Automatic annotation (TrEMBL):
Function: Bifunctional enzyme that catalyzes the epimerization of the S- and R-forms of NAD(P)HX and the dehydration of the S-form of NAD(P)HX at the expense of ADP, which is converted to AMP. This allows the repair of both epimers of NAD(P)HX, a damaged form of NAD(P)H that is a result of enzymatic or heat-dependent hydration.
Entry's cofactor comment: Binds 1 potassium ion per subunit.
Superkingdom, natural source: Bacteria
GO MF term (any one): kinase activity
Keywords: ATP-binding, Isomerase, Kinase, Lyase, Metal-binding, Multifunctional enzyme, NAD, NADP, Nucleotide-binding, Potassium, Transferase
The keyword Transferase is annotated on this UniProt entry: yes
CDD domains named in the record: YXKO-related
UniProt-listed SUPFAM superfamilies: Ribokinase-like, YjeF N-terminal domain-like
Gene Ontology biological process: metabolite repair; nicotinamide nucleotide metabolic process
Amino-acid positions noted as binding K(+) in the UniProt annotation, renumbered to this chain: 57, 112, 145
Pfam families referenced in this protein's UniProt entry, alphabetically: Carb_kinase, YjeF_N
Domain YjeF C-terminal per the UniProt entry, residue ranges: 202-461
Record-given protein name: Bifunctional NAD(P)H-hydrate repair enzyme
Length: 464
């Protein structure tokens, strides 16, 4: 489990530490960490270029240049705002023979000290011009310049980092955007940070939480998942969601709906009926994928929301809740509800997502008293209690038709097994992405392949 702290929290911690350590000490610790990683990345190379902006991020880069010069590396620096450069850093850099140049040429590695925690908006034109002409790998100081530190959003030119060296703690950008390989350097902030704003689960967290049968378990004790999905027109969504639930835990899966024949044919182990009213008891429902939005579908959603068990509402269920707010009344507010919108579904429910996906998920979670799993390259899970988990995919292989149906089935089975709904959503997102990566192995895949890789993904996260 990795914590992430927003820039406000980092600055507050930094101030408290700066009050008790000598001036400049934090910057030199940070810069030394950058220089160590730079030396490692240089391998046989001998020439480093610095892009230096107006603030302390640029100061870090200049001090890193100082330490590299002391190791005999040739270092040149472009000062993007010469009148506002970090004076001490520049003096130290010059003292050891660092060269100031107009343009970086023939370097083996670039250190990006354009902007850090104070970044607002994309790279400015002069910085963007320098970045566009780079052909060496880039080591970003704190974060890749041009990306927002708190939201991970990019609205124009930005640095593409091979590696990012950050200090004291991870910030939201490191989980929400591509920062390359992220290295954390300890500069002594830990004692002042307190609880994180966001959390990223690692495979060990997911593996430990994943429900597996114990010696006393049977098919009922592990939780029965109900799938209310699919229709005569869209039976595939039901087959995918039911299959995902079957492959994710050893509990029983009941399917209820118009695609019963198709589900039974593909998954003989599922107990299938035509209607949610005669489905029998379940410990959680998945409702929505391929269900349609007509009156019949509304009745299904109402029945499921009234059932008094946790519900994962996806796809058409979200659209129905957006179009017909009366449906919320069917819900028992004390029973967990997980909504799994993509951006367009979110917009129907709560307006445009905007650049700040974490705040968007948080707001909807609070407004609907539900766990909101906002799908995307970085999936954000927000709980009504304020907890937020993020999970960034390293690839886009999961972006394929039917992929969401699989996710809802996985999530539903974890709810049925009794996992805390925020954790269930975080674990489902992680295993879903991992299954896509394992199935794809470098080539596009349909959702059925993603589905088939769920057991491998679970094996990959489970402790030995
Ligand atoms: N916190 C810590 O624990 C430690 C922090 N340390 C370091 O300090 C860094 C934060 O430094 P900082 O606050 O001086 O600001 P920084 O990010 O260098 O920005 C400078 C100026 O750039 C400008 N600017 C804004 N957006 C821009 C854009 N898109 N493109 C171009 N320019 C842009 C804007 O000025 P403006 O031109 O708008 O007036 C802004 O004021 C932090 O990331 C870390 O590296 C470590 O040394 C020690 C431990
Ligand atoms: K930077």
């Amino acid at each position: 489990m990795r914590g992430l702290w927003t820039t406000d929290r980092v600055r507050a911690a930094e101030e408290r530490v700066m009050a008790v350590v000598p001036a400049g000490a934090l910057m030199r610790r940070a810069a030394f960490g950058v220089a160590v990683v730079a030396a490692e990345l240089l391998a046989g190379g001998r020439r480093v270029g610095l892009l230096v902006g107006a603030g302390n991020n640029g100061g870090d880069a200049l001090w890193a240049g100082y330490y590299l010069r002391k190791r005999g590396v040739a270092v040149s620096a472009v000062l993007l705002t010469p009148d506002r450069v970090h004076a001490e850093g520049l003096a130290a850099f010059r003292r050891v023979g660092g060269r100031v140049v107009d343009r970086l040429a023939d370097v083996d590695l670039v250190i990006d000290g354009i902007v850090g925690l104070s970044a607002r908006g994309p790279l400015r034109p002069d910085a963007a011009e320098h970045v566009a002409h780079l052909d060496a790998p880039v080591l970003s100081v704190d974060l890749p310049s041009g990306i927002d530190p708190d939201t991970g959003a990019t609205s124009g030119p930005a640095v593409r980092a091979h590696t990012t060296v950050t200090f004291g703690c991870l910030k939201p950008v490191h989980a929400l955007a591509d920062c390359g390989d992220v290295r954390l350097v300890d500069i002594g902030l830990a004692g002042e940070l307190h609880g994180p704003d966001l959390v990223e689960l690692d495979v060990a967290d997911v593996g430990l939480a994943w429900p597996v049968p114990g010696p006393e378990d049977d098919k009922y004790t592990q939780g029965v998942t109900g799938i209310a999905a699919g229709s005569a027109t869209y039976p595939g969504a039901a087959v995918l969601a039911a299959g995902a639930a079957l492959l994710s835990t050893s509990g029983l899966v009941r399917y209820a709906g118009a695609a019963a024949e198709g589900v039974r044919a593909r998954w003989p182990e599922a107990v299938c009926t035509g209607s949610v009213t005669d489905a029998g008891r379940v410990q959680a429902w998945v409702v929505g994928p391929g269900l349609g939005t007509g009156l019949g579908a509304e009745a299904v959603l109402r029945t499921v929301l009234e059932a008094g068990v946790p519900v994962c509402a996806d796809a058409d269920a979200i659209t129905m809740l957006a179009n017909n707010p009366d449906l919320w009344d069917a819900r028992d507010p004390d029973t967990p509800l997980v909504l799994t919108p993509h951006d367009r579904e979110y917009e129907r429910l709560a307006g445009p997502v905007g650049d700040d996906r974490v705040t968007a998920a948080r707001k909807a979670a609070e407004r609907f008293n539900a766990v909101v799993l906002l799908k995307g390259h970085a999936t954000v899970v927000a709980g009504p209690d304020g907890r937020v988990l993020v999970n960034r995919a390293r690839s886009s292989w999961a972006a394929t038709a039917g992929s969401g149906d699989v996710l809802s089935g996985v999530l539903g089975s974890l709810l049925a097994a009794g996992l805390d709904p925020v954790l269930a959503a975080g674990c489902a997102a992680k295993v879903h992405v991992l299954a896509a990566e394992l199935a794809a192995d470098g080539a596009p895949i349909p959702a059925t392949s993603l589905l088939g890789a769920i057991p491998d993904a679970i094996r990959a996260v489970r402790p030995l």
